[in-house]
Amino acid sequence: MNNHIAIAIDGPAAAGKSTVAKIVAHKLSYIYIDTGAMYRALTYKVLQEDVTLEDECAVGHVLHNTSIELVHGDQDQKILLDGRDVSMEIRGEQVTNHVSIVAKHRNVREEMVNRQRQLAKQRRVVMDGRDIGTHVIPDAEVKIFLIASVQERAERRHKENTVKGFPSNLEKLKEDIRKRDKIDSEREVSPLVKATDAIEIDTTSLSIEEVANEILQVVYDIQGKEE
Ligand code: CDP
Ligand code: CDP
């Protein structure tokens, strides 16, 4: 059985990528790599420093001098920024609303993609993001593109916020998701787009388990074929 495959999961904001990617990785004993967390960590640092988000050169310079580590624990993954755990901070509204501006820069994407390719070198990874199947691991054996309606995605985030006790406004979430998707899809360098050989799954009316099982079935079919 080929147990050294790479699984790329892409799609717009809140489509369920990280939730199902973690389940799939756990079931296969693969490593899960959250590439969005890397862009979020950089954005967090840039916001803290006296750097203009739109200044490609300055932002690239920050990244060049920044260490971003994904530490895999039993329960969850920790994001270390220059050795400090920023897993919670990078999920805040400030970072969410600015990350797509930072992620547009060509120099930032080039360096991030290099780092992500290093992490995926050994295969046995489930990597989620926007450009994994198209740029980071274009030869991934399994490519999935998850979508869901904006309404459904905003409702999911709203529910998540409410459970966590965070303030949340459904209309504002819809607007923010639309805005981020637009920037991510229209940027010049490796925009959010479905790879031609990716399998699209519309998760609007699917449960987390149904989506994870669908992806696992694709993996088992491939492994079976290569036996
Ligand atoms: O989880 P959520 O969908 O809110 O976003 P994320 O996966 O944490 O990614 C945050 C942002 O990082 C995205 O909106 C993109 O701007 C950027 N990103 C990217 O450009 N390329 C990736 N491979 C992953 C994320
Ligand atoms: O990583 P991404 O931004 O694509 O989405 P996520 O953070 O994995 O999922 C956003 C929210 O939707 C989470 O609260 C998930 O539990 C929920 N979800 C869902 O309700 N149904 C699915 N099929 C997938 C995710």
Automatic annotation (TrEMBL):
InterPro entries: Cytidylate_kin, Cytidylate_kinase_dom, P-loop_NTPase. ATP binds at residues 11-19. PANTHER family: CYTIDYLATE KINASE (PTHR21299:SF2), CYTIDYLATE KINASE/PANTOATE-BETA-ALANINE LIGASE (PTHR21299). SUPFAM superfamilies: P-loop containing nucleoside triphosphate hydrolases. This is Cytidylate kinase. Belongs to the cytidylate kinase family. Type 1 subfamily. The gene is cmk. Residues 7-219 form the Cytidylate kinase domain. NCBIfam families: cmk. One of its GO terms (biological process) is nucleobase-containing small molecule interconversion. Its EC number is 2.7.4.25. It catalyses: CMP + ATP = CDP + ADP; dCMP + ATP = dCDP + ADP. It is found in: Cytoplasm. One of its GO terms (molecular function) is CMP kinase activity. Keywords: ATP-binding, Cytoplasm, Kinase, Nucleotide-binding, Transferase. It is an enzyme of class 2 (transferase). GO terms for cellular component: cytosol. HAMAP family: Cytidyl_kinase_type1 (MF_00238). The lineage of its organism: Bacteria, Bacillati, Bacillota, Bacilli, Bacillales.
